[in-house]
Predict the 3D structure of the following.
Amino acid sequence: MMIALMRLGLLLVMVSAVSLNTSEIKVLSVTAIGLMAMMEQIAPEFERATGHKVAVTFGLAPDLRKRIDDGETFDVIILGPSSIDELTKQGKVAAGMRTDFARTGIGVCVRAGKPKPNIGSVEAFKRTLLSAKSITYNPAVTSGRHVENLLLRLGIAEEMKNKTVSAENKPGPGKVVGVVARGEAELGLVITTDIISDDGVEYVGPLPTELQSYIVFTAAVSKSAKDPDTAKSLIDFLKTPAAASVIKAKGMERPE
């Protein structure tokens, strides 16, 4: 009986020790379809590996910045590199506790089942755009603004004007892919993570290297994190081979 009580006592001590050593990491992350899908898979893997809990809140970058300016506390923030730089200068993010863990480029999609055009070179991409009946992109977001500049750079902005369907005010989070999936436009130009996550469209491929632009996701530890080392362990987990396979599956890649 005494031995059983001693064992029970030891077990309770061990459970208490684990409880004391576990934390909940509060993450604020910019909204991006691929990023949301990635964290949905990676967070539980991290929790199983470490015992720590992860609570992720997604939002638009300006909204997250306002919440931080208003004094909301967090442990880890995921934004673009320039926004992280600003927060570091403001003393809200710890210097030296950040990493660029993923990036997504811009790709082309067609409606599921439709032929995939040639976009393998700058000239082939240009010919494909000119021969398309219609294209779509969202001029209100970074990828769409890049596409607008590309059309000017290729010297075909005027020719494309009448065949462009703006996705800016279309429904759903995946505005561009929705337009293509519904057959409202023949080609969609948007970040690859949006394309990979939608069954109604098929991925043609990335923009030619010379025309490509990337959106980089950076994770950093808050200057006021409850447990900076634990918060940093989540960021370190984003750099593991296990995380890399998830990042790739969601249409992203490691930054070079």
Q: What stands out?
A: The chain has a mean pLDDT of 89.
